């Protein structure tokens, strides 16, 4: 990974022009959201692989993780490395707490991750290294805890958590490294548009959860 330079001054105007179509697309994606529930799918290969597959089939974990990786990549190699190693570690520790002391949380709490992280990516926010580390800690603690609660109910235990943390590590490493490597100005704009999609989906899911009492 190598450091990145700020985007061109005209980027915010371009984002503003693209945000409308992105919001429309996000509306279509979130028009009929599924109920908030565990997404643990049995692979038939044991708890480790069940944990690994969990991230891929759980959008409320997958999208905020991608958003944080995008943000870290925009901020450069140092932040990318912090998130790559810090997020899976905190995710695992939060999951252990969820295994030991499981408790339910409203679905709308998880949508805050979409809104905050997606919004920061869309704005190309110049957040500090410490702020990125704090965001990684908060995301890992919250979503790791919820993973632990689900895996406690499914009987996957610590082995399932190890699989989930491993998949988080792999995803963040790939996404952050890819964003850091981008050279052209338009590619940075594309990353910001992806962040606006995630934020829009989070906003729609939050409204749905409030209306449905989730």
In a few lines, what is going on in this structure?
The protein is an all-alpha fold and 214 residues long. The chain has eight helices and no strands.
Structural notes for this entry:
The structure is a single chain. This protein has eight helices and no strands. It has 214 residues and is mainly α. Helices cover 77% and strands 0% of the residues.
- Backbone structural class: mainly alpha
Number of beta-strand segments: 0
Reading the helices and strands in chain order gives HHHHHHHH
Number of helices: 8
Please outline the major beta sheet.
none
Helical content class:
over 70%
Shape: globular
Q: Which percent band covers the strand fraction?
A: under 5%
Mean pLDDT: 79
Q: Uncertain runs with pLDDT below 50, 5 residues or more? A: 2-38
Q: In angstroms, what is the radius of gyration?
A: 17 Å
Distance between the termini: 40 Å
Features:
single chain, mainly alpha, 0% strand, 214 residues, globular
Write the layout of secondary structure elements.
Layout: H1 11-29, H2 47-54, H3 59-75, H4 77-100, H5 107-123, H6 129-154, H7 157-181, H8 185-212
Helix pairs in contact: 1-8, 2-7, 3-4, 3-5, 3-6, 3-7, 3-8, 4-6, 4-7, 5-8, 6-7
């Amino acid at each position: 990974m190598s450091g990145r330079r700020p985007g061109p001054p005209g980027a915010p105007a371009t984002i503003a022009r693209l945000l409308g179509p992105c919001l429309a697309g996000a509306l279509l994606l979130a028009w009929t959201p599924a109920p908030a529930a565990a997404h643990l799918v049995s692979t038939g290969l044991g708890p480790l692989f069940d944990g690994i597959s969990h991230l891929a089939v759980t959008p409320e974990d997958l999208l905020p993780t991608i958003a944080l990786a995008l943000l870290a990549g925009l901020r450069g190699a140092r932040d990318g490395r912090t998130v790559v190693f810090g997020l899976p570690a905190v995710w695992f520790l939060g999951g252990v707490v969820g295994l030991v002391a499981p408790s339910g949380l409203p679905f709308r709490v998880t949508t805050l991750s979409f809104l905050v992280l997606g919004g920061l990516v869309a704005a190309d926010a110049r957040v500090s290294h410490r702020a990125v580390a704090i965001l990684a800690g908060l995301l890992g603690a919250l979503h790791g805890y919820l993973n632990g609660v689900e895996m406690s109910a499914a009987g996957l235990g610590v082995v399932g958590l190890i699989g989930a943390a491993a998949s988080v590590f792999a995803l963040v490493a790939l996404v952050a490294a890819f964003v850091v490597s981008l050279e052209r100005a338009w590619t940075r704009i594309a990353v910001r548009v992806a962040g606006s999609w995630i934020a829009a989906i989070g906003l729609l899911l939050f409204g749905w959860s409030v209306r449905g009492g989730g």
